[in-house]
Write a structure and sequence with these properties.
Structural class: mainly alpha
Radius of gyration: 17 Å
Number of strands: 0
Helix content: over 70%
Number of helices: 6
Largest sheet: none
Mean pLDDT: 90
Strand content: under 5%
Shape: elongated
Length: 144
């Protein structure tokens, strides 16, 4: 198979796996950290109305969902890519960062969370995922 097509496929599969991990963590998060009393996170309107009720602990799971989802997607993309493994991992980070920017524009959040999320959850985690997926043997590593 053409290496470029395989790399594109690797990125697509990485986006799918990362998105699934992100969604799973968000799905289970109310079972791990209970929402504030009276909060309704099931609709965009309810989320906006509940924003003032949220404490810092309520932002932990969304941050972890973004960071771990990006990390997993980057590892998958880099492992499946034939060449340019780190570049494929970072493409995952940029794609998730774009999603994160869209989310902070629509979901009310405190500034500290927005900064932490956008600066720490996407590109750094994609880089770490890419580094983890790179071959350990320097003679076999493809620098890209």
């Amino acid at each position: 198979m053409n290496p470029t097509l395989r790399n594109v496929g690797a990125v697509i599969v990485g986006l799918i796996f990362g998105g699934l991990v992100n969604g799973l963590i968000i799905f289970i998060s109310p079972n791990l950290i209970a929402p504030p009393p009276g909060a309704d996170f099931t609709t965009p309107e309810g989320l906006e109305a509940s924003a003032g009720l949220m404490e810092p602990i309520h932002f932990l799971m969304p941050f972890l969902a973004h960071a771990i989802g990006t990390f997993v997607g980057a590892v998958v993309a880099a492992k499946l890519a034939v060449t340019h493994k780190m570049r494929c991992a970072l493409i995952i980070g940029v794609a998730f960062l774009i999603g994160g920017i869209m989310a902070v524009m629509t979901i009310p959040s405190p500034v500290w969370f927005i900064l932490a999320d956008l600066l720490l959850a996407y590109i750094p985690m994609a880089y770490l995922g890419g580094k983890l997926a790179l071959p350990k043997n320097k003679f076999n590593a493809q620098v890209s």
